[in-house]
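ok, trying the design again with the full structure, not the truncated one.
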């Protein structure tokens, strides 16, 4: 999948405190609003610095350190005011919990040597240290990470109390808008599977970095699409450096979005890469069903998408009933079965039973064609499951069998029982 370079670790460690500072609760307006869920759990020394008494001079010193990212441009506030016409209202692309995004255009008229390029300029809300920390987290991660399925950070601005970020412009906006806006044409099946694969590749790249990066807020509104519908992950304000060495998880304040956060993370505050896998499963389910993760306008039993759909994902008599009816006959039954089975495993209540994102990528790749491949293999990796392979054989259009196959290092009588997908 590639890596993020040898200097990633030193920079991430240098800003470990900043990456763990997410203290202020945010109000809940709808199912896609970032939230803080109060939970008691053991806190690291870095977590103990999550308070507003952090000296501002330390924040300023941290800001100066971002100059090490030579591939990121330090813009002046005047330059960004110029390219957005003083942040005119008709230049607004959207608004989120952390700021307003404007369209702009950089070229040599802004600064000599700049390549002509449309950009998106995010102006963070002035929320004191909290806004700064999230801004700095984004610069820290995107200043080092480069991948076709991550949005590219072009530059930043840090003047007085102004915090701005400049990204590549994504012509088709967010996946959320394409899936759920009533005026939007329904995304075709092939496009949905392509988007799922691209987003999976982005997460797999983060998880396979020299030190894993946990995205922590994977959802449709954070998946942006370019003119070719290539999916790119955006908004790294809640990202965390993952566990190292013998560590099994990162303990942190529970933050994320209702409907997407993994249940074990919500309950304990223990964050792992498998937390992202669960969130991916929710988004894959949204792609398959055309429904929001949480929709209060639906009947009470259908308001939580995972609760409603997951029992049907592995049922050969029911799984087709949850597929978005707007897709009609664009997909094969086999392809739908495979995609539903993948979502089922990603949404497992047991994090160790979820696949790695690299395995998710391998499972989605055969679905990029006609979806008629006869076989697909999903590797379930993790403590206790690392050498088992779940291999599905599809019989006809509806018949499905599933059995656990021990790998070469497995001893008989392992912990994973034989299973059947009904």
């Amino acid at each position: 999948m590639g890596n993020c370079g040898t200097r990633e670790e030193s920079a991430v460690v240098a800003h470990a405190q900043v990456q763990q500072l997410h203290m202020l609760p945010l109000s809940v307006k709808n199912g896609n609003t970032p939230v803080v869920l109060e939970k008691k759990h053991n806190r690291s020394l870095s977590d103990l610095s999550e308070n507003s008494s952090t000296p501002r001079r330390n924040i300023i010193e941290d800001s100066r350190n971002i100059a090490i990212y030579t591939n990121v441009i330090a813009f002046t506030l005047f330059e960004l005011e110029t390219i957005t016409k003083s942040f005119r209202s008709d230049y607004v692309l959207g608004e989120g919990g952390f700021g307003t995004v404007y369209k702009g255009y950089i070229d040599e008229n802004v600064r000599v040597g700049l390549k002509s390029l449309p950009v998106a300029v995010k102006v963070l809300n002035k929320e004191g240290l909290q806004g700064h920390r999230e801004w700095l987290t984004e610069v820290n991660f995107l200043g080092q990470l480069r991948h076709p399925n991550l949005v590219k950070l072009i530059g930043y601005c840090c003047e007085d109390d102004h915090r701005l970020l400049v990204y590549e412009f994504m012509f088709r906006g967010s996946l959320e808008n394409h899936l759920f806006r009533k005026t939007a044409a329904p995304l075709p099946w092939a496009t949905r599977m392509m988007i799922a694969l691209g987003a999976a590749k982005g997460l797999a790249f983060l998880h396979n970095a020299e030190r894993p990066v946990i995205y922590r807020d994977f959802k449709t509104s954070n998946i942006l699409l370019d003119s070719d519908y290539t999916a790119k992950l955006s908004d790294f304000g809640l990202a965390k450096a993952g566990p190292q060495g013998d560590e099994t998880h990162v303990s942190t304040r529970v933050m994320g979005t209702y409907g997407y956060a993994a249940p074990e993370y919500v309950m304990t505050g223990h964050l792992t890469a498998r937390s992202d896998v669960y969130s991916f499963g929710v988004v894959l389910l949204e792609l398959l069903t055309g429904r929001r993760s949480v929709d209060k306008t639906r009947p009470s039993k259908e308001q939580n998408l995972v609760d409603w759909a997951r029992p049907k994902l592995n049922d050969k008599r029911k799984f087709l009933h949850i597929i978005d009816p707007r897709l009609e006959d664009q997909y094969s039954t086999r392809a739908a079965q495979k995609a539903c089975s993948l979502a089922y495993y990603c949404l497992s209540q047991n994090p160790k039973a979820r696949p790695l994102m690299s395995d998710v990528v391998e499972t989605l790749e055969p679905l990029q064609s006609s979806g008629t491949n006869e076989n697909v293999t999903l590797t379930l990796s993790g403590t206790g499951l690392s050498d088992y392979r779940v291999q599905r054989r599809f019989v006809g259009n509806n018949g499905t069998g599933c059995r656990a196959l021990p790998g070469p290092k497995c001893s008989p009588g392992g912990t994973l029982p034989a299973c059947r997908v009904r």
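Keeping the full-length input from now on. The longest helix spans residues 189-207.
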